[in-house]
């Protein structure tokens, strides 16, 4: 026993003394490859939280034991692990992280290192859009990319209005979408959770390879593929609720009665005498809204890869309710990517994206804004009330009836697939052949029932909208696209020279067929049943075949193209990019069918020069490019061939028959060409402070020439190439990444882009294009608002006498005082002028990311500044009697009572002219997204190994600072008629809870 005690004592002393001897103070220096100290580098003992940071000279001091592992990390550099030995001083060299500096991006028909390109390509990782409550992934890019304008809609399934670097045409603004190499006009069919990355191409150097489709920019989407040697299963789900914000201020019942009676008195009429029949005080917006609308997402992704086969499968389900009752979108998506390595030099692959959508019956708040509040939704018997005959009854249906009784079934099926083979030969050559198809069918059936409504004035129940017969409608729209790509790539490094060349031939074909029709019930027969089984045109015996009406629309077109691109660099610092494409289109006349597009770009990576050694600048590249891009979009297909339209009819024969005649819609134009955009860009990319600060700046100029304009001149009607539009501006983006200690890191980023849009010419001097309240004319921005400038209100007859006389109609005190713009001493139509610009002076966004241990907080802010909105609701633009905006309570009722809100009148048209009274400030700042997440450490639950797990709460559109009186300051539209607020739909706040797990 004594011997055992002595042995244990000796053993304890040995381990104690050994431990004391093993623990030591170590110090060292962390440098980069150029022997420059790295201040702020993290030095942590692996498996613990014990650690230190390097000082300004890259030095650190730490207590450690022999055989401990030091983990040294620094942003932008490869993390190293170094074992502790008996040495007490260490010099550690960190290598630059090539994954950061040599980021590979997707370009047209291939990939390339970003540092080898002369253009502006912005890469957005898929996780940015994966956990946001947006059915369309592009909606989540709002405020994320300089130069990208995203105007979102709050309606389920609606596509955002997208513009990249301004409006370059009067016919189309949408960019080209390319999903895994497949051309598309939208990406609504893509599940955001299936996206690996999104690249945005903005400059001529990267866009010219797309030729006639490149003018509006290109958005490239790459879906997920499996990684070799891994089996990953990821499941994610989220549930959110929506709430409307920015509710317009409308008159309640009491205010309405006051204003309406005053208006009648001003127009010399007696007060309304039927108020006793209507005792409601209805907020129609509240009646039809669906606060608490649900958004649900569930997604499953399975990825498995080995040396010979990589397969990825994604399944998704989305259910989204609108903020108006009875709106609901449901989508089921599937994504499959499979690549098979047949031999060392040959691989094949297949990709499939499929979606089945149950589309919503969409409504708007327009009728709820206009409907008078003095009516209750139902009478005492539960029958819908009709609005008062004299107060909108003939123009507006009961808003709640319109929402509740909307009947229709709308479905969409889309299948996008591709198959490819890729062969490597002669060491440096790669040939790729790809075939893809896009099949999209949208079909629907609608039913118009007989809905009883109560008419208080006549004390009777009648059918709504004067309808006496039930009816059904049916439509079927089919679009097919087929694409072939044959690409030969040569890639070779010759010492200091890097060279990549691409040759390609591609074809693209499109087919469209639309068929629609309707039929009414047999007069005097049984109503068509309110049952979807009977909602077909051949409904028998209920449908009257004599009333069956059908119509169709169809077209097809094709493009063949030859293309090439060269990427060259010398010593990785002198870069030249060049591309060329020749497109031939079936939509153009034979003489001008083929057109050429090209670009050249150059860049200099200054930071690789010897004189930049030991500089505080880590990376600096200056770049520039010039090119000619194309825009094939037009209002009609085959614009050089005239369509036919109905002409005068004639009577022939016995018995006499009426024979319809058709005439040419416009004359032939045998020399039409596609619009061209001459574009150039100069810019720089900078990284400094040990890659913690990154900054990009670009100046761009895009001049669209040969605009496709439809001209009506006297009796002549034709298409021609004429006119120019110029867009120019600056883009800035910056990011700061840093760490504080071992547990906290943060990132701050921001971007800002300016755009100045000018129409240099339209057709000929004085020629203008009108669309609603907008005018497109020489010297002004496209789609400018046009009308009279309001200087105030006439306060008295003396004020009228002292002002220039007006030829616009009769006016009295309390009416608008329009400005004499041309100074001719009177107010005439010649005093109309540009009164607002729908294009913002600049758009911007900012993001903050905070990470502390397992917690992350992301905050995104975005906004626009300097544009105007046209308020197209509650503005007295119609003689129909609608509800009053709340601001009308401040109307003019005598001298000095108001200098902006005119007197109340329904009979005078003087105040109904398009004017600055309709203009509102479109600038806004929005907290676009806030997400708080907790990331669990890898764990095992009942034998199931979780690689990562994330639980988060997300708030979108949390708050908006705005100046307009409508729901939202965002309003898209066509190229020549946009930023018009019709009062129809809000952008809701969406609060969601979600999680994701990978095992």
Automatic annotation (TrEMBL):
Using the record, list the residue span of the signal peptide; answer none if the entry has no such feature.
1-22
Cellular location(s): Cell outer membrane
Q: Which domain of life is it from?
A: Bacteria
What InterPro entries does the record tag this protein with? Beta-barrel_TonB, Beta-barrel_TonB_sf, CarboxyPept-like_regulatory, Plug_dom, Plug_dom_sf, TonB-dep_OMP_SusC/RagA, TonB-dep_OMP_SusC/RagA_CS, TonB-dep_rcpt-like
Q: Which SUPFAM superfamilies match?
A: Carboxypeptidase regulatory domain-like, Porins
Q: Which UniProt keywords apply?
A: Cell outer membrane, Membrane, Receptor, Signal, TonB box, Transmembrane, Transmembrane beta strand, Transport
Q: Where is the TonB-dependent receptor plug domain?
A: 113-218
- Pinpoint the TonB-dependent receptor-like beta-barrel domain residues: 417-958
**What does the record say about its membrane topology?**
Multi-pass membrane protein
The record ties this protein, via Pfam families, to: CarbopepD_reg_2, Plug, TonB_dep_Rec_b-barrel
**UniProt record similarity statement:** Belongs to the TonB-dependent receptor family.
Question: Under what name is this protein listed?
Answer: TonB-dependent receptor
Q: Which organism is it from?
A: Algibacter agarivorans
